[in-house]
Amino acid sequence: MKKLKNEAQLVKKAMQVGESYAQKRGYAAFSAETSANLKVESLYRLLVQDKLVVALPPDKEDLPGMKHKLAIWIDRMLPDDHPLKAAS
Q1: What does DSSP assign to residue 88?
Q2: Pair 18, 46: CB distance under 8 Å
Q3: Domain span at residue 73?
Q4: How many CA atoms lie within 13 A of 57 on its CB side?
Q5: How many domains does the chain contain in total?
């Protein structure tokens, strides 16, 4: 798994966009007490269920892998002129 140059910023953006997507799909908003790791896992599983992200193999399913998948997803969603795209 090759890490993207600005993966941390892409994951942050993916979490923002993913939360909005989840709410539009009818899921309740995350509470303020929800950990970032739980948000990452929940958004990853939702995107896999909706076939927007290819699932990791079960034996390789871990938090860094899920974050990487979210970063790849948002990188593909962003327009070409977005500042996060230019850095990758």
Answers
A1: -
A2: yes
A3: 34-88
A4: 3
A5: 1
